[in-house]
Amino acid sequence: METKQIKIEAFPLGPLQTNAYLVSLPEENRGFVIDPGMNPQPLLKRIEGMEIEAIVLTHAHFDHIGGVDAVRRLKGCPVYLHDAEADWLTNPKRNGSVMWPELGGPITTDPAEYALDDGQKLKLLGLVFQVLHTPGHSPGSVSLLYGNHLFGGDVLFRLSVGRTDLPGGDQQDLLDSIHDKLLKLPDETIVYPGHGSRTTIGYEREHNPYL
């Protein structure tokens, strides 16, 4: 299957330096946003003159959704989120924003327009992205795969894995997700995580102390 060359830009946003990603086709000046976090000004500035087709959320923790409203208002684009976290956008208790008031207070936004599901082929930018349900860090965590690019949210990090001590987290589910879904991908698959620098499946298979 032919894969187009996509451009991927990372924007570490907010107090937790959460990676928002802009995935685009530069020659067509259109793209979509993954996990627009808090204090999204650098991202908003970058997409000002672009067509943005969607916001895709790997999960709905507060640090990944703080910029949803701003991007949605600016671009009038729909939001995609797994149904297991359907009510998290409207519920600050669920999305965790009330747990750390010093980081900015309660965050709420309107519900997502579309649900993500395991194995779903998500068509964006005229391309097909594969949705993998990878629960553990949170019940509705998903990873998004295109060619050898994997947007993994807070499931797998460089030399680490996602925390499971937040509501809905489950250590065994997380490890199952990583072993059954992510580590089955080719070694050269590039992982774009929710925090920190990117890595590859091969590097983590070889060096990650949690696996």
UniProtKB/TrEMBL annotation:
Keywords: Hydrolase, Metal-binding, Zinc. Residues 17-195 form the Metallo-beta-lactamase domain. Its cofactor is Zn(2+). It catalyses: 3',5'-cyclic UMP + H2O = UMP + H(+); 3',5'-cyclic CMP + H2O = CMP + H(+). One of its GO terms (molecular function) is metal ion binding. The keyword Metal-binding applies. Gene3D superfamilies: Ribonuclease Z/Hydroxyacylglutathione hydrolase-like (3.60.15.10). InterPro entries: MBL_Glyoxalase_II (IPR051453), Metallo-B-lactamas (IPR001279), RibonucZ/Hydroxyglut_hydro (IPR036866). PANTHER family: HYDROXYACYLGLUTATHIONE HYDROLASE GLOC (PTHR46233). Counteracts the endogenous Pycsar antiviral defense system. Phosphodiesterase that enables metal-dependent hydrolysis of host cyclic nucleotide Pycsar defense signals such as cCMP and cUMP. This is Metal-binding protein. It comes from Paenibacillus elgii.
